[in-house]
Amino acid sequence: MGIRSAQGKWWARQDSNLQPDGYEPSALTIELRAPISTKRQGYTRGSLRKEHPMVTKSPGCSASLQRSLSITDRQKTKSMQLKHTLAALASLAAACALTIQPASAGDHKLQRSVTVQASASVNAAPDMARIRGGVHTKAETAAEALKANTQKMANVVDGLKALGIEARDIQTSNFNVNPQYTHSRDGRPPQITGYQVTNEVAILMRDLKSLGSVLDKVISLGANQINGLSFEVSNAEELADTARREAIANARRRAQLFATAADAEVGEVLEIREGGSPSVGRAPIMEASAARMAAPIEPGEQTLTTSVTVTWALK
């Protein structure tokens, strides 16, 4: 769009591009041109506006300048609004940060508490025993060693069942076949000279009175290995409950002692933790050879120990 002056020497041009609907150009270009003159004329911006009022007072040019100023004002207004919005968000974020900041230790009174660890034990006479033994055979071939072992082990199991031991109380605990080697001194590779088969069972004895006779019978039936025996308590969990109650009582007694010494009173329980599974002081495993034995067996007593850690509030 162009606007010429009355004399036809000065004119103004507005540049614009086609843009989508709702687009606002960032600037409006106003270009003023003067005819080429041989005389040197020094015009300043102020003098130009004074000497050529047609340019500034032209209706089209004024509308263009006003539109440019209007667009610029709107951009400045939006910019100021954006700055105010960002400032408000920053203030809100700072306020939230102050709100969620954790309170220091001095803001709230710390709760006083006492934590005590105590234990208790219960003695019980074992009422069960577990025997571990089996058959160990050797032969030149693995088949021969396995055949001999199977025959002897079958005799042992059949004899145990004949003594009244139930099948559920007889469990295979170990079975392996190993080659036997000879090592030469001249550096040659080891040579296989035979095979060894081992079959072991764990026997649960629920009647301790017949324990000695059962051990003797096992060996007489062909078992040449008795790896030992141990004693057990069938109602160990119920006895452990008794130990737990005593441990709690010991812990409370100790907590009251501490609270009284600190001029306080024991309040409600805050936490109770048990120190693992109750430990059982088992009788030592008895090692035995394959010789015939009718040794007396003394089960003695077992000790079940449990520990607890309890925290009480102090008043």
What do these coordinates show?
The chain has 6 helices and 11 strands.
Structure keywords:
alpha+beta; disordered N terminus; 35% helix; flat; four-stranded antiparallel β-sheet; 6 helices; 315 residues
Category from helices, strands and their pairing: alpha+beta
- The count of β-strands is 11
- Elements, N to C (H/E): EEEHHHEEHEEHEHEEE
Could you list the spans in which at least 5 consecutive residues all have pLDDT below 50? 1-19, 26-32, 37-58, 96-103, 283-293
User: What level of helicity do the residues show?
Assistant: 25-40%
- Mean pLDDT figure: 75
Shape: flat
Q: Strand count, sense and closure of the main sheet? A: 4 strands, antiparallel
Portion in beta strands: 25-35%
Distance from first to last alpha carbon: 90 Å
Counted by DSSP, the helix tally is 6
Rounded to the nearest angstrom, the radius of gyration is 52 Å
Please provide a brief summary of the model.
The chain has helices at 45-51, 53-57, 59-100, 142-162, 211-220, 236-261; strands at 2-4, 11-15, 29-33, 113-124, 128-139, 170-182, 191-205, 225-232, 266-274, 279-281, 302-314. The strands form three sheets. Strands 4, 9, 10 and 11 form a four-stranded antiparallel β-sheet that branches.
Strand and helix layout:
Layout: E1 2-4, E2 11-15, E3 29-33, H1 45-51, H2 53-57, H3 59-100, E4 113-124, E5 128-139, H4 142-162, E6 170-182, E7 191-205, H5 211-220, E8 225-232, H6 236-261, E9 266-274, E10 279-281, E11 302-314
Antiparallel strand pairs: 1-2, 2-3, 4-11, 5-7, 5-8, 6-7, 9-11, 10-11
